[in-house]
Amino acid sequence: MNVSHDWLRALVAHDLSPARLRDLLTSRVVTVDELVPLRADLAPIVVARVVEAARHPDSDHLWITRVDAGGGELLDVVCGAPNVQAGKLYPFAPVGTVMPEGLKIERRKIRGQVSNGMLCSVRELKLGESHEGIMELDLEAAPGTPFLDAVPVGDVRLVLDVGANRPDLLSHLGVARELAAALGKPLVLPPIPGAPASIPHIERRTSGGHAGPAEVTVESEARTTRYMGAVIRGVKVGPSPEWLVQRLTAVGSRSINNVVDATNYVLHELGQPVHAFDFAKLAGSRVVVRNARRGEALVTLDGVSRTLDERIVVIADAERAQAVAGVMGGRDSEVGDATNDLFIEVATFEPARTRAARRALGLTTDASYRFERGVDPELPPVALTRVIQLVQSLAGGQVDGLPLDLYAAPRAHATVGVRADRVRRILGERIGADAIARLLRGVGFRIQTSPGTEMLSGQEELGVVVPSWRGDVTSEIDLVEEVARLHGYDAIPTEIAPFRPSTVPDAPEWRQADRLRDELVALGLHETRALPFVSGAETGYVRVQNPLAETESYLRREILETLARRAEHNLAHMQGDVRIFEIGAVFAPGERSLPKEKLRVGALVMGARRPPHFSEPRPPLYDEWDAKALGERIAAVAEPGGEVDLVPSSAKESLWTIMVDAKPRGTVKRLVIDAPVWAGPAFGVEFTLGSVASEHVAQPGAHDWSPVELPKARHSEYRDLPTQPAAIFDLALLVPEDLAAERVESALRRAAGELLESVSLFDEYRGKGVEPGFRSLAWRLTLRHPERTLRDKEVEGRRDKILRTLANELGIRTRTA
Amino acid sequence: MTLDELLAIARQLEQDGLADIERATDADGLEAARAALLGRKSGRLNDVMKALPALAPDDRRAAGAEVNRVKGALESALETRKGALAPRAAGPRIDPTMPARRQWRGSRHPVTLVIDEIVEIFRELGFTIAVGPEAEHEWYNFGALNFPPNHPAMDAHDTLYLGEGSLLRTHTSPVQVRALQRHPPPVRILVPGNVYRRDFFDPSHAPMFAQLEGLAVDDNITFADLKATLTRFATRFFGAAKTRFRPSYFPFTEPSAELDISCQVCGGSGCGVCKQTGWVEILGCGMVHPRVLENAGVDPERYSGWAFGMGPGRVAVNRYRLPNIKLLYDSDVRFLEQFDR
User: Fold this and answer.
1) Which residues in chain B have Cβ-Cβ distances shorter than 8 Å to A30?
2) Using the 8-state DSSP alphabet, how is residue A613 labeled?
3) A496 neighbourhood in chain B, CB within 8 Å
4) pLDDT (0 to 100) of residue B32
5) Which of helix, strand or coil describes residue B13?
6) Inter-CA distances, A529 with A566, A633, A746, B175, B329, Å
């Protein structure tokens, strides 16, 4: 929202600079995002002193001057002005300046003398028409000072960030009201020059009546709060005067003609949208506020033909829609050069209806923006008077008959209580009832109960009557905020209260995720945080109803879906060493409820297993066994103390299922991705950390403060360190290709008995000496007795028993070299 | 001697010196080179240093720095050469200047780094971590947080809907209500998490981004406490010289405020980054609206609270001076590996 510095000053006389005004408004009213100097084209102009002035040798009207423009050296400047005088200050355009009219100042020779810039006249700076020589500056400023800093020319636009709760600030009046309170100065609406002192009495009715010759009906379905209208006859439509054009330009609005500009002026001055119809175009001299009919068409002022429906309220004549209520007028009844008679509409439309229409049409205007947020229902009479005065002053004409005011249910002013003690408890500072009353009165609240009155509760409480423009204030806390703001956030103390420990335990999933990050980073993987949108499919995926892109309209089911696309992105940039992981949410459709959300970790590895080193110029690529290890690590870190087992999987592309305590928790996969030929194979691990609870904790307004159960931490178990020597021997076995190593190993464990401490598979061999259909697998066994040294014979006996068992149960032989 | 002359001599000395050191074939030769270059009395560097006091103070500083750099370069070359010439006691001869055998190094995401740092600061003030679902009920996301239905306040929360009254949460604030429903005050929590808005990518917007929410609810929580806690945080985290709170609007807090820090680029004098205001917004905050407490089953007459929310992604963009927020999402390994600390 834009306001003009000059315009505000016309309502509240003050002498704050734009920057000071910005700081004041930002600290206690509304944030000023930006100051826009409207004469930014003058930014390159500086104040300069003419040090010497001498007649040009080859001209009788030119001067050669030496100019100090603050650059450290005197510049030679040729000047044609009769009033140039040594010792005086003038605006100076250095070489390179683009003048307001578009002329670029360059270093050039004038009658054989070099000129480095230009001393400027009032007209050259577009500050007026005077071209009687250059502009003499009667002020104190060092040469080189920007002209705009030294001379207050040109208005400044303030760009305000008005919150949705403060529609009253969407006008100069609203901002001026706050400003007047802050500065303790009066607020006055400047009188309109040449306007009649008063306008005819306005007739108030409920649902229909006449505004002079116009018959106005408001249908109840249109839910219009207030509708005022007047007919002005005999206007002369034409261009607006310069002052009005400048006001509108200052807030970023374009001048159209004097009548339309008058309505826009009132909108920006008071915050009341006003629309002027060409009265002759309203069929039957009728004005009907009603719901649009389904399929009804209207060409709006922007020239777009729009199809309306019942959600949209229109202003119609006897036959058809002529405007979208609260949003935009229609082209047919637009005020133009040929217009003689006006129907002026000043109304307050319901916020929700305006919002619905605005959204249905995708059309936001200055009017819809204000109606959507709520316009003061007591503003229309003021605005109607103002706009009639303006129109008559700018375009002449006479009001025909009595204006009309349809206001079925005048809204009473709400009264809201505020306790001084409540203010203290929320703000942390004691502000007395007197001070509270004073602050609130300053911005238009009325105090019903005199301060200091003891209420039944024994607390100081004020009854505060809310002004019509502050519909946002409905409860005590709204007044507490007003008090805080008006008292000043800066004035409230800065003091940490003594605190008690939080009853909320750390979310276990957060800790778990943090451990996993540490582990995976240590393993050389990079964390990613990518978007969870995927191309998906109709079944099995959660669909976003209003997706950003139809090609990615589903939520991912697996982290690996995202990681695979991210790996492809890297491959496209010739980056084949991709080690990435993400800890994030995946989604599956729920049954008539929220999607089922799970927290998962996904990891993807491809490319070199280690960085190249001179000792290993081409390190091996990641393979299945790296992926299996990654799966084991992730499971172990996610579930410390859990029994982790990776069982071979028969599912497509899946290598292993990760089991923790006999429950499937994840998979290790060979990934199918779109990869160039030079890329190594890609492997992925996907592991579920847990379900994310999304059901209601308790009914709205209720709580469930039952004790919180936390998962017990699991610890490693200590085993006594061995005191006796171990016996270690290897077994090389010929194992059929279709026999799983794990079966051999479990048979081997059983046969080895209680003395077996550990067993590890350390070699696989195929080829010479091993017949086809077989492979040689070698295990290393460690046997140990807890209390004594094992005798060779005992070890030999065990070895024989193991081999016998393997031969009998699985038909396995040892490999003889 | 002028500064330029002196710098030229210093650089020449460096060039000659490095060559001399490389040419030495035994310890004696190396010692001779050292004496000629860096010797206390007759070293060439000493001669250069003697010329320093004659320079203007500003020039002296520049020259001194250059002379020190040259000295350092020569000393390190001497040390390297010494190692290379030293006789080996035992074992195979190795060239110690060759690179180490390194392992791959991974990295936390820059947004995680920012979150970690914020969490660390609030840990000291008694905060714990809470989380909640990303696919959320409309009630938790809007109704419970006092968003009036069909209100312009919703315009800033352009929402991705999932059907059946569910949506992708537009902020982490639903977790405020969830936590308060589940745990009695005192509640002091931080809520990091992803949130979604129906925004297309541009250099500073993304359809999903990280948010970090803070909430403190007890029987003595005031705006003064809010100001103090967040000022302390801002000073710790940003090293900000100055902070200010200014009025703002959020449906779920009242009074609402925004916290600014003095612009770290211009120091508060006004520049392009702060739009000439001297201030940069870092977070939104306010006293928890009594209706939010009520909706969570907490008595607003007995308890009060404050909350804040900020965007770690935005912080990362500023801190690492990223030209485009999309870098945080692309997962380009060449980007991610820059954060391996």
Assistant:
1) 247
2) B
3) 125, 225, 228-229, 232
4) 82
5) helix
6) 10, 21, 42, 21, 6
Q: In the structure, what pLDDT confidence band is assigned to residue B277 with cuts at 50, 70 and 90?
A: confident
Distance of CA A275 to the CA centre of its chain: 33
A439, two tokens: 């602050």
Quote the pLDDT of residue A147.
86
Could you tell me the two tokens for B70? 């040259």
Reported pTM: 0.85
Closest CA to B298 of A660, A740, A503, A525: A503
Per-residue pLDDT band at A456 (split at 50, 70, 90) = very low
A422: distance to nearest CA of chain B, Å? 9
Does the CB of B259 have a partner CB in chain A at under 8 Å?
A: no
Residues 184-243, chain A: which have Cβ within 8 Å of B? none
Is B188–A527 a contact, with Cβ atoms under 8 angstroms apart?
Answer: no
Angle in degrees, CA A529, A535, A540, rounded to 5: 100
- Two tokens at B314? 């935005």
Buried b (16+ CB within 10 A) or exposed e, A99-114: bbeeeebeeeebeebe
In sequence order, what E strands does chain B have? 128-129, 135-137, 161-163, 166-168, 187-196, 208-218, 243-250, 253-262, 279-288, 304-310
Two tokens, residue A733? 């076995």
The phi and psi torsions of A91 (rounded to 5 degrees) equal -70, 140
β strands within A193-309, DSSP E: 203-205, 208-211, 214-218, 224-233, 274-278, 286-291, 297-299, 305-307
Helix/strand/coil percent split, chain A, to 5: 25, 30, 45
3-class SS string, A479-497: HHHHHHHHHCHHHCCCCCC
- In the chain, the amino acid numbered A780 is R
Q: Output helix, strand, coil percentages for chain B, rounded to the nearest 5.
A: 45, 20, 35
Bridge pairing between strands A813-814 and B128-129: unpaired
d(CA A698, CA A703): 5
Q: Parallel, antiparallel, or unpaired for β A328-329 and A321-324?
A: antiparallel
What ipTM did this prediction achieve? 0.86
Q: What is the mean pLDDT of chain A?
A: 92
Do residue B128 and residue A523 have CB atoms under 8 angstroms apart? no
Q: Which of A240, A247, A360 is nearest to A311 (CA)?
A: A360
- pLDDT > 70? residue A453: no
- State how far the alpha carbon of A639 is from the alpha carbons of A560, A690, A711, in Å: 21, 11, 11
Asked if A138 reaches chain B (Cβ–Cβ under 8 Å), the answer is: no
Neighbours of A337 (CB within 10 A): 8
Give DSSP secondary structure letters for A61-98.
S-EEEEEE-SSSSEEEEEE--TT--TT-EEEEE-TTPB
Burial label, A435 (beta-carbon count in 10 A; 0-12, 13-18, 19+) = middle
Question: HSE (CB half, 13 Å, CA atoms) of A212?
Answer: 20
The answer to which of A278-287, A767-776, B39-48 has the lowest mean pLDDT is: B39-48
Give the closest residue to A673 by CA, choosing from A607, A599, A584: A607
Do the beta carbons of residue A676 and residue A573 sit within 8 Å?
A: no
Peptide bond into B255 cis (omega under 30): yes
For A19, name the nearest residue in chain B, comparing CA atoms only.
Answer: B277
Distance from the B337 Cα atom to the nearest Cα atom in chain A, whole angstroms = 7
Tens of pLDDT, residues A304-342: 999 999 999 999 999 999 999 999 999 999 999 999 999
Task: Report the range of poorest mean pLDDT among A280-294, B155-169, B285-299.
Answer: B155-169
CA B185 – CA A502 distance, rounded (Å): 7
**Is any Cβ of chain A less than 8 angstroms from the Cβ of B94?**
no
Give Cα A10 distance to the centre of its chain: 35
The model's pLDDT over A499-519, given as tens digits with 9 standing for 90+, comes to: 999 999 999 999 999 999 999
pLDDT tens digits for range B90-120: 667 788 889 999 999 999 999 999 999 999 9
